[in-house]
């Protein structure tokens, strides 16, 4: 599995020229829990956001993201209904995951993708706060079939409580 936080900061490289086009600042996710694009860091304070659609990415390696050429960078296109992970309004990180019967399972600290980097999120890393993280560790929740991104919480079925697993970090 690959964590979203491990992707942030990776350089984006044009494979034809070897030029670094920027670095991954964030991921844009739609309401179906699929990544639609990567957001690049801005070259200046006043420049508009630059992004690359997921379909335009050659590879998402451990050390870099590669694209066919610089022409895949978009700056004015709007992705409707998309959410971001760490920055801006509608962020997912830090939102509480709440079951429909009102039980909070934790706050989203990270999201996971399959090793082959499908665009669908396959799970959430949840925290119940610093002390609970130190004492009991964080939890992993496989992405449920039905999850609703709200403005203030992410709603999941009651059955998700039984699906929580301890995270075992690989050294």
UniProtKB/TrEMBL annotation:
InterPro entries: PRC-brl_dom, PRC_barrel-like_sf. Gene3D superfamilies: PRC-barrel domain (2.30.30.240). It comes from the Bacteria. Residues 2-68, 92-158 form the PRC-barrel domain. This is PRC-barrel domain-containing protein.
């Amino acid at each position: 599995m690959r964590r979203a936080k491990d992707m942030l900061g990776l350089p984006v490289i044009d494979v034809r020229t070897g030029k670094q086009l920027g670095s991954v600042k964030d991921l844009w996710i739609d309401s179906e829990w699929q990544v639609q694009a990567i957001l690049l860091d801005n070259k200046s304070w006043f420049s508009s956001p630059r992004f690359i659609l997921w379909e335009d990415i050659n590879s998402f390696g451990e050390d870099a993201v590669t694209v066919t050429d610089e022409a895949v960078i978009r700056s004015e296109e709007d992705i409707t209904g998309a959410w971001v992970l760490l920055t801006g309004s509608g962020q997912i990180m830090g939102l509480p995951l709440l079951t429909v019967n009102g039980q909070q399972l934790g706050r989203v600290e990270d999201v996971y993708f399959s090793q082959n980097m499908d665009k669908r999120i396959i799970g959430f890393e949840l925290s119940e706060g610093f002390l609970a993280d130190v004492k009991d560790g964080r939890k992993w929740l496989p992405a449920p079939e039905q999850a609703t991104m709200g403005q203030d919480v992410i709603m999941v079925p009651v059955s998700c409580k039984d699906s929580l697993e301890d995270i075992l970090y690989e050294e």
